[in-house]
Design a protein that fits this description.
The chain is of the alpha/beta class. The chain has helices at 34-50, 80-83, 104-110, 123-136, 162-177, 183-192, 201-213, and strands at residues 11-16, 54-60, 89-93, 115-121, 140-149, 153-155, 158-160, 179-181. The protein has seven helices and eight strands, in the order βαβαβαβαβββαβαα. The strands form two sheets. Strands 3-2-1-4-5-8 form a six-stranded parallel beta sheet, with helices on both faces. A two-stranded antiparallel sheet has the order 6-7. Strand 1, helix 1 (34-50) and strand 2 form a beta-alpha-beta unit. Helix 1 (34-50) runs parallel beside helix 6 (183-192) and helix 4 runs parallel beside helix 5 (162-177). The longest helix is centred in the first third of the chain and has 17 residues, at 34-50. The chain is globular and about 55 Å long. 40% of the residues are buried. This is Cysteine hydrolase family protein. Residues 12-177 form the Isochorismatase-like domain. Its EC number is 3.-.-.-.
């Protein structure tokens, strides 16, 4: 962790799509296991509330005929651990980024938020889309890697396990788009005022080259 900066971040915790379909439903999270990651999402929400960090809950919406997140279905509803906790703002979306077609940016600007802490699902889809979108709009981003998760994919481009997808995306995010850290580390940052470590594309690449040459 870096030393405390002169300016304290004005954070909002962005809780992305923590819905029942991810909890053993039609799109069950495999890595990290949902049962573990949802505990960390809840922990982050509790820590945010205790530290007066605003909490925004995002929900993915899909037509009633959809196989996942169908309107009116159990799978499409917020997970009970998230639904029962307080929030400062609620956003429904239909595309991966929480910013597209929603009032999220306007709400963040109105509340003078400059730093987003992203948790929820999935690492490689809605989290990734939201984080990149946020960076392009000038927000600083933090990503809690144990409060999220991935599923495996197989298609015409090949196969990737949930663990591979999650690991690679977090490495990519840390290289440029977000400060990647564990929930416990983030909670400590809230207590101490320390800022999480950020990295660069160049430095990340140079370390990889040195590692490969060793």
């Amino acid at each position: 962790m870096s030393d405390k900066a002169n300016t304290t971040p004005r954070r909002a915790l962005i809780v992305v799509d923590v819905q029942n379909d991810y909890d053993g439903g039609n799109l069950a999270i495999q890595h990290p296991p949902f049962r573990d990651s949802v505990v960390n999402v809840a922990r982050a929400m509790d820590a945010a509330a205790a530290a007066a960090v605003k909490v925004v809950v995002i929900k993915q919406m899909a037509p009633e005929t959809s196989l996942i997140f169908a309107k009116g279905s159990h799978g499409g509803e917020l997970h009970p651990e998230i639904a029962r906790r307080s929030r400062d703002h609620y956003v429904e979306k239909t595309l991966p980024s929480a910013f597209t077609g929603t009032d999220l940016e306007a709400w963040l600007r109105a509340n003078a938020i400059d730093t987003l802490t992203v948790v929820g699902y999935m690492t490689h889809n809605c989290d990734l889309s939201t984080i990149i979108h946020a960076v392009h709009m000038g927000f600083a981003v933090e990503f809690l890697s144990d409060a999220t998760g991935s599923v495996p994919y197989a298609n015409s481009a090949g196969y990737a396990s949930a663990e591979d997808i999650h690991r690679v995306v977090t490495v990519i995010l840390q290289s440029r788009f977000a400060a990647v850290l564990k929930t416990a580390e983030w909670v400590e940052c809230l207590k101490t005022g320390a800022l999480p470590e950020r990295d660069t594309i160049y430095a990340s690449n140079q370390r990889a080259l040195a590692r490969n040459a060793a």
